[in-house]
Fold this protein.
Amino acid sequence: MTKNYWKAVLLCTLFFFTISCTKDDTGVFPEGYDTLYDAFLQHKQFKSARIRSRYFTVVFSDGESVSVDTDAIMVEDCRFSPKKDVTVGGNGKILVGGTDTGVSSDTSLSDDKAAPVYVSFDDKVIRIALRNGNTLEIPTNKKLPVLYIKTKDLAEIVSKEDYVEGTLTICDRTGLYPEMDGFSASMKIRGRGNSTWGMPKKPWKIKLNEKARMFGMSKDKEWCLLANYSDKTLMRNLVAMKLSETCGFSWTPRMISVDVWLNDKYQGVYSFSEHKKVSSERVDIDTDRGDIYFEIEQNQDNPVCWRTGIYNVPMMFSDPDEPDYKTIAAGKKAFSDFEKALSAEHFDDPDTGYVAHIDIKSFIDNYIIQELTKNIDGDLRKSIFLTKTVGGKLEMCHVWDFDLTIGNCDYFAGEVGMPISNGYTGWYVRDFSSAGYHTGWYYRLFQDPAFVQKVTDRWNMLYPLFKAGVPKFIEEQYALLEESAKDNFETWDILSTYVWPNVVVTGSYRGEVDYMKKFFLNRLEWMNAQYNKM
């Protein structure tokens, strides 16, 4: 198929055809389409794609570009809306999103003779639907955005308490987040994390001098850079947020993968994330009127901490972090009332039992995510967050911290003092708490048949969504991360080395991702079988 051939066809047909109404039914090869088709044949990848004026402009990874006339063919940006279905109507004409294009379907045509009827694109792929029923795909060659951090006087970041002043500049290399390309801001940066702060690749917290809407997330000053040093997939936290998003928590922390440079030295791949905090676009409560944001955390390092009286759960006030006497009393009373009701003889009473004190859906969704990922910290020990609004119930408001999940923790039996496998089988969160075996809120909740039924019903609703969405999401993230992962593991040469608390050492990035995906799918199916025995 030559360019001259297409130009001749174009001159003969462009006058007669539009996407919505044609004088015959053969379709049209719009200006520029020959180059787009050649790119498909040559297995090219694209760097950016966008609609400008009447042209669909594509820039390929080799630097070549093409503009396709959108007056002659329907082209749709599907980054923010789903692509339309291409079907054949009863009259044999091709329908796009139910609209008759006037073009007849002809499955006898080869791809080079079949005119395009609909082009859709997003950040991952350009799809070209042809009148012969085939769809051609041109994938992206996306590279992660780059965050360049420079500290004042090249100062080192050595503290989790003391900020270092500096600047943040962002380069969006291939059009993933074009609105962020060239972004620059003054900021402060410090260390963060507990066990992760002691690892060679350091996690950080950033505080911009002025609020900014970063990568389409919330508008705020405070952001996190999660290092994921022991998570060699570099994506377990992202997978957990995908689960949270599927469940529909009141807030799911948004995060993306980025490459990070500090003072002109490459640091690796990080998860750039919204910082967990009370704000209108994150944990949306009103602390001024008495609402409270709590954290379950065994490292009790906030100003006001305590352990609950009956189930010995380690609690902290996160916001307000230095509450007044009235707020402390109200917060402690909320948990005391809940635990008294939960431990009572008639704890399952729908009016006077535990149901009166907690948001059941959020407790169930939190349980499912913690259990499905087999989170060592999910047994009411740390990184679990709740809210209590004035006049409202205790709610598990979001999830957080999943780098040691989905088969990446080798110390289950030693930690809980009972024979429990590091593998994908076995109940954990329902049978254990930080206080030991057969203790905790969830162990008691599962003694109520009504709660068990609600968990089973919720699981059966979520299971097909998890099965369809999560493996696909993992592969999408792998495609996005693969190139940067090479640089990350050249800097941190650990793919063939045990890093606490790895269960396996595969020796390759693909191997790490495959192991995590297999663990997830095996545990998903194991849990599904267990729930449907109940």
Remarks:
- The chain has a mean pLDDT of 92.
- The CA atoms of residues 177 and 215 lie 6 Å apart.
- The longest helix spans residues 449-491.
